[in-house]
DNA sequence: GCGGATCAC
DNA sequence: TATGGTGATCCGC
């Protein structure tokens, strides 16, 4: 290991303990890993990896991330107080608009099978019971049972490192058919509760149990217990469940009392806010290792609540959609409707092999892949016009090379011939992986932008099956999606990498006691009455949001609980409007943000130089000036609103009018959360372990 | 349209 | 000895 520079010793922990700065995906707290000596695991992983090509590549990637963080820090530091306060105003306004979309009328259940592959293997071979076991091989583990997790062994970990951590570890090869069989059994059960359930993988599904709860007069928690019992009866496998008002929260909840447990988050706004406020951001689907680091290192954000507190920074430094996503997370919002059908957009295959620079060998690999891909495409009747070649060099650097054709292709020969041209341009090269992907399919439905596209534009956030918002951002670019055509593959490889170096960052969800007085206060608050007690949460962001709501409209205590019901104001123009906007990367929040909610006052640069609001002329090259000008109009408008204009009718709506049920919400809410207001704190965080 | 990144499972 | 495969999306070019 190279000597760590002395000056960095205080800033980072290199030097004495180099493994602490090696950020991997599996040195993290997770269900079944409570008693693990994380320091030791991290050290072993580091020692086993050190010096390898893989490790060197990880170090390169790490350096890039550091740069990214530094750049963002610099931008953050450069913000003037004036800018900040303006963006804070924008953020507050956005929070209000997002709050208005809150829908507490649905009951979502997320089911997650416990260590699925491993559990199935144990079911089929009882001699494995009670012994540490992993499904996978020496190079990669798909999942590990709980006995193995106690040693720090987990999904996505190379087998040879796992064996080092746990020499007794039993390896069982993956048997895809077996898992599919048992998955089908579980799905038969899911179907009886929600015929339209959404399977996001072999072992996970989302169910809308709103109707079941209503018709049978039972709580979401009761349905969850019943369903888990039924799954066990049908398969002999245990699962965990989460019940909440939206998919995003339900998913978080299903992880809390895993394995073989469940957690219900009442459909109550204060309950949601309290729950989300102390939640580590890494628990949220869509926030991965890198995003977490950026948010914590640059903004000091580690819990969802801080997303709202730092709203001004987020809105000024991230794209509008990313900032919206972050603010939504802070509010505990998520998708409440079943996602619309989504068509597959690409098909691909890739293979890893012993690194080689033999051209004959490389072309042979390419040929095999072309054959495979063509066969897969024929099975699905797909023809595409964009071909992408993926390469991973022997030093783990990944490259892609793409080619878009006039014609649609699907035959083995076409794929191979075009792919060969792409590969040829890269020679000579030493590779350990080749992949092929075809996209831009015929019949892409692109001909009818009317419905899907428009809806996407109208809603300021779009969510996929898991309730993860589709969003985008320059340096983050993170997003997630569970396609409806799920790839039933590497299932259990749930990544979680919360670095637990800072001891104060305990996970409140995984412990039974709470030593932090402020947190306890919050929790007690949660356990107590859920209405009319806002004032007792000291410094809570709930207060702040409520204050915002009150300020925006004194009558809105009702509004914030019901759904926006006003009919849309002329939104269909948005497409053209957006395209006329002066979009300057990170600043587009201000401009776009306003146009999507306010049609009548956008700042448009007509003919690309004249402000539509005041007529002032500014050529497009005057980027900064334009920004300031836009800010000026924004501030002007916000002031107007402050002084009493009704902003409520201007609130943007995201949901389609179809499922607006309007008045019934409160009743549904009560019904689905009988424990409202009477949830003792110990119950709130107690593991509900029931052996079916 | 391309290439690099990030994320989920 | 040895660190996966499939699909999606976003951003800056």
From TrEMBL:
Its BP terms in the Gene Ontology are: DNA repair; DNA replication; error-prone translesion synthesis
| Cofactor(s) listed in the protein's UniProt record | Mg(2+)
Q: Where is the UmuC domain?
A: 108-288
What PROSITE patterns does UniProt report for this protein, alphabetically? UMUC, ZF_UBZ3
| Alphabetical list of InterPro entries matching this protein | DNA/RNA_pol_sf (IPR043502), DNA_pol_Y-fam_lit_finger_sf (IPR036775), DNA_pol_Y-fam_little_finger (IPR017961), DNA_polymerase-Y (IPR050116), DNApol_IV (IPR022880), PolY_HhH_motif (IPR024728), Rev_trsase/Diguanyl_cyclase (IPR043128), UBZ3 (IPR041298)
Q: Which UniProt keywords apply?
A: DNA damage, DNA repair, DNA replication, DNA-binding, DNA-directed DNA polymerase, Magnesium, Metal-binding, Mutator protein, Nucleotidyltransferase, Nucleus, Transferase, Zinc, Zinc-finger
- Principal location listed in the UniProt entry: nucleus
- Which principal EC class is assigned to this enzyme? transferase
Return the GO cellular component terms, semicolon-separated. nucleus
Looking at the record, which segments are called Disordered?
A: 553-580, 640-692
- Show where the UBZ3-type domain sits: 604-641
Q: Known catalysed reaction(s)?
A: DNA(n) + a 2'-deoxyribonucleoside 5'-triphosphate = DNA(n+1) + diphosphate
Basic and acidic residues: compositionally biased ranges: 563-576, 640-657
Q: Which GO terms describe its molecular function?
A: damaged DNA binding; DNA-directed DNA polymerase activity; zinc ion binding
The question of whether DNA-binding is a record keyword is answered with yes
- Per the record's keyword annotation, is RNA-binding included, yes or no? no
Subcellular location, record wording: Nucleus
Q: Identify the SUPFAM superfamilies for this entry.
A: DNA/RNA polymerases, Lesion bypass DNA polymerase (Y-family), little finger domain
**What HAMAP family does the entry give?**
DNApol_IV (MF_01113)
User: According to its UniProt record, which protein family does this protein belong to?
Assistant: Belongs to the DNA polymerase type-Y family.
Which protein are we looking at?
Answer: DNA polymerase kappa
Which species does the entry assign this protein to? Rhodamnia argentea
């Amino acid at each position: 290991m190279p000597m760590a520079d002395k000056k960095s010793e205080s800033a980072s922990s290199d030097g004495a303990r180099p493994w602490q700065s090696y950020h991997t995906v599996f040195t993290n707290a997770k269900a079944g890993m409570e008693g693990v000596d994380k320091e030791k695991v991290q050290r072993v992983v580091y020692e086993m990896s050190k010096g390898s090509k893989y490790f060197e590549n990880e170090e390169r990637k790490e350096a890039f991330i550091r740069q990214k963080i530094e750049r963002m820090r610099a931008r953050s530091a450069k913000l003037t107080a004036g800018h900040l306060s303006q963006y804070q105003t924008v953020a507050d306004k956005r929070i209000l608009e997002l709050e208005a979309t809150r829908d507490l009328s649905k009951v979502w259940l997320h089911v997650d099978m416990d260590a699925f592959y491993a559990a199935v293997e144990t079911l089929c071979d009882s001699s494995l019971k009670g012994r540490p076991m992993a499904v996978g091989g020496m190079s990669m583990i798909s999942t590990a049972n709980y006995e193995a997790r106690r040693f720090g062994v987990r999904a996505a970990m190379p087998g040879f490192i796992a064996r080092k951590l746990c020499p007794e570890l039993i390896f069982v090869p993956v048997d895809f058919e077996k898992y599919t069989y048992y998955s089908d059994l579980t799905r038969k059960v899911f179907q009886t509760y929600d015929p339209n359930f959404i399977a996001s993988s072999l072992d996970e599904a989302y169910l809308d149990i709103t109707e079941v709860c209503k018709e049978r007069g039972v709580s979401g928690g009761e349905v969850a217990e019943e369903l888990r019992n039924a799954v066990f009866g049908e398969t002999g496998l245990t699962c965990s469940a989460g019940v909440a008002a939206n998919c995003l929260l339900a998913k978080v909840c299903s992880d809390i009392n895993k394995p073989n447990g469940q957690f219900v988050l009442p459909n109550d706004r204060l309950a949601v806010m309290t729950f989300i406020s102390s939640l580590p951001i890494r628990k949220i689907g869509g926030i991965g290792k890198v995003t977490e680091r950026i948010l914590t290192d640059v903004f000091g954000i580690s819990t969802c609540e801080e997303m709202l507190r730092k709203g001004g920074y987020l809105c000024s430094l991230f794209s509008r959609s990313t900032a919206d996503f972050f603010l939504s997370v802070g509010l505990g919002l998520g998708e409440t409707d079943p996602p619309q059908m989504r068509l597959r957009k690409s098909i691909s295959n890739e293979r890893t092999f012993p690194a080689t620079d033999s051209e004959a060998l490389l072309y042979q690999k390419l040929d095999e892949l072309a054959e495979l891909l063509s066969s897969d495409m024929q099975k699905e009747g797909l023809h595409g016009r964009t071909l992408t070649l993926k390469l991973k060099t022997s030093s783990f650097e990944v490259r892609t090379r793409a080619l878009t054709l006039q014609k649609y292709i699907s035959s083995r020969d076409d794929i191979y011939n075009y792919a060969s041209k792409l590969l040829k341009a890269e020679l000579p090269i030493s590779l350990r992986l080749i992949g092929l992907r075809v996209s831009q399919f015929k019949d892409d439905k692109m001909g009818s932008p009317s419905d899907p596209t428009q809806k996407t534009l109208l809603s300021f956030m779009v969510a996929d099956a898991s309730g993860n918002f589709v969003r985008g951002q320059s340096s983050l670019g993170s997003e997630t999606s569970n396609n409806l055509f799920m790839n039933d593959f590497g299932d259990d490889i749930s990544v979680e990498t919360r670095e637990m170096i800072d001891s104060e960052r305990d996970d409140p969800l995984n412990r039974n006691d709470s030593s932090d007085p402020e947190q306890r206060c919050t929790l007690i608050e949660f356990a107590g009455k859920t209405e009319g007690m806002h004032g007792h949460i000291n410094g809570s962001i709930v207060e702040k949001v409520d204050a915002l709501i009150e300020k925006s409209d004194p009558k809105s205590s009702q509004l914030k609980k019901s759904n926006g019901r006003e009919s849309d104001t002329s939104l269909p123009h948005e497409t053209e409007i957006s395209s006329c906007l002066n979009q300057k990367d990170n600043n587009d929040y201000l401009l776009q943000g306003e146009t999507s909610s306010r049609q009548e006052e956008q700042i448009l640069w007509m003919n690309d130089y004249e402000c539509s609001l005041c007529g002032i002329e500014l050529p497009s090259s005057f980027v900064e000036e334009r920004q300031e000008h836009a800010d000026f109009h924004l501030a002007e408008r916000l002031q107007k609103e402050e002084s009493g204009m009704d902003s409520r009718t201007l609130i943007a709506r995201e949901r389609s009018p179809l499922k607006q049920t309007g008045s019934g919400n409160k009743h549904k809410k009560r019904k689905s959360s009988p424990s409202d207001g009477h949830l003792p704190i110990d119950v709130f965080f107690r593991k509900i372990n029931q052996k079916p």
